[in-house]
# Entry
Amino acid sequence: MTPRHDDEGIPTSRLSRSARVGRLAAGQAARQLGTRATNVARSEDGKRKALEKRQVETAEQIVAALGTMKGAAMKLGQVMSFLDVGLVPEEYREEFQLKLAALQNAAPKVAFKDMKKVLEGEYGEKLDAVFQSFDPMPIAAASIGQVYRATLPDGRDVAVKVQYPGVAQAVRADMQNLGMILRLMRSVAPGLDPKALGDEIRMRIGEELDYELEAANQRSLARIYKGHPFIVVPDVVSELSHEKVVVSEFVDGRGFEEIKTLPQEERDRLGEIVFRFYFGCMYRHRQFSGDPHPGNSLLLRDGRMAFLDFGLFKRIPASVAERELAMVRASLDSDAGALAAQLRDAGFVLESARYSDEQLLEQFRDLTWWYTTDEVVALDPEIATQVMIDMSDPRSRHFAQMRHESMPPDHLFGRRLEVLTLAVLGQLRARNNWFRIAQEWIDGAEPETELGRREAEFLARRA
# Structure
């Protein structure tokens, strides 16, 4: 059977896409077997270098696999690209990051006439019957859609996010092959359960294809943050939002690259807003964007920050949020036994684990210290690198333990939010006592910052 391609030459059949990923996975498996066989006769230094080489090969295999795809798998690659973390040793990192950066900007290039067909297909009428004006030049691009600026007949400026034609089929083909990519990832995170995690990722990214659902997610957070003193979630134009198009209030502001050049004091303030929005959504409201990405926030002229893009979205039960906060409290109390019990009950630690509760406490602290240490912490990209290494890399001092650990699906996107938020703050090089802020949702502590007091007043009024 000849693989089908869309107009951009992107293979959309599972057979062709699976073949590409399968060849890459097979090559990686052979390399790992060779490394293990020759490690017997190597010195410790030789073993370290062999491990680093294997890490480079594994990372390149993943990048190559993701790079062959233009749907959901590319989105996974964008996450890795933005993290800028130590998937590979320092001396290889610059070259590797260039490869990842290509994924971050690899959104399909689709002519406006084709995007217009999607819009008119959704509305059942010509574009000029729906909008007073519509700029055909996109103002932003994403892995599965493009954003345009338009004006409604009543004069309102809006952002119109349109799904690429055919991308839903490509994404679903990618999701069928997700298991292969997760098996590659197991070489750096051996405790992963590919099936359980694959199911959770497929569900979340499958939902992202439904822009009506994204509109509902955005409406929910827009209601929660309506009137907030420093956080803006643009309102949705519900009557114009359909399965492949979502229309919302247009907001204009400075992007992340410009924000990074602002004075330290302002970056500290904006870092606190980012931290409060993402962690606050998760622990106060138990619903959050799973995509804390610098392209998804803008600094408005009045000093508020607007947050965008709610396709990759997660709602968690109160029990899940409370369990995670209970783990943090146990760590703060140095109660290794209580922390270990919570981790085991939640499924983070497998029955095969034979290490001590104190070792679990040390590992947990290495992953959370930046917001559980009562001191001012100046974040930078290297801190995000180290936390990611400690979380999932063979160079972590906890790597032996990781072979007996897993990632419960209910907690997957929360950990993703945690690491991506840290990466944003690291790129901002923001300073703060993150612990004192986090205490507001960990233990209900009174706010100690000006932003915290303003948010507390807002929440009290809303209550």
The CA atoms of residues 54 and 364 lie 26 Å apart. The first strand starts at residue 133 and ends at 134.
